[in-house]
Design brief:
Number of strands: 0
CATH topology of the largest domain: Rna Polymerase Sigma Factor, Chain: A
Structural class: mainly alpha
Helix content: over 70%
Radius of gyration: 20 Å
Shape: elongated
Largest sheet: none
Number of domains: 2
Number of helices: 8
Order of helices and strands: HHHHHHHH
Strand content: under 5%
CATH class of the largest domain: Mainly Alpha
CATH architecture of the largest domain: Orthogonal Bundle
Length: 178
């Protein structure tokens, strides 16, 4: 017997985890393939879809879709992919600016120092494990696999923590006006 997406969503709103798993199994591979078309990175695509379904479950009481569940899920996947692309691009641009900008003027040095102070403060505000992973990868230059072995956690978890850390740092720096 085929259960419609709409029926699954209604059940998920009522905390039915079995229906949530059915929806996950029904859409996971298709959504991963769709996101892969945007990112061209299998692991990032899988991470985004896992996050999508985690968000779906955590916000299950607030879901506003009663029809075209497929369209809703694919739109969420597209938005999350674009956010990931933007975050990655902004981070790369930020690194390029920091590494390529010559510090000829005192004002530039001040701005750079202000940025570094704000960045260090934001890094300190990260949760302990996320901060540790971020510092090992971005500051000490360790590869994700090396961090995984050192901390005894999966590479996928490392990727998730790095992505989440970047999102939090970006938000923190925006709040600080840097």
């Amino acid at each position: 017997m085929h259960i419609t997406d709409e029926t699954l969503i209604a059940a998920i709103k009522e905390d039915d985890y079995v229906s949530y798993n059915r929806l996950f199994v029904r859409y996971y591979n298709r959504l991963c393939q769709y996101v892969y078309g945007w990112l061209e990175n299998r692991e990032d695509s899988e991470d985004i879809i896992q996050e999508l379904f985690l968000n779906l479950w955590s916000r299950r009481k607030k879901i506003e879709v009663n029809e075209n569940v497929s369209g809703y899920l694919f739109m969420m996947a597209k938005n999350m992919s674009l956010n990931h692309i933007r975050a990655t691009k902004n981070y790369r641009t930020l690194l390029e600016k920091q590494s390529s900008a010559p510090d000829y003027y005192e004002e530039d040095l001040l701005e750079s120092d202000e940025f570094r102070i704000a960045l260090y403060d934001c890094i300190e505000r990260l949760p302990e494990r996320s901060r540790e992973v971020f510092i090992l990868h971005r500051v000490k230059g360790m590869k994700q696999k090396e961090i995984s072995e050192k901390l005894s956690i999966s590479v996928k978890t490392i990727k998730n923590q790095l992505w989440t850390s970047l999102q939090k740092l970006k938000k923190c720096l925006e709040i600080k006006g840097v």
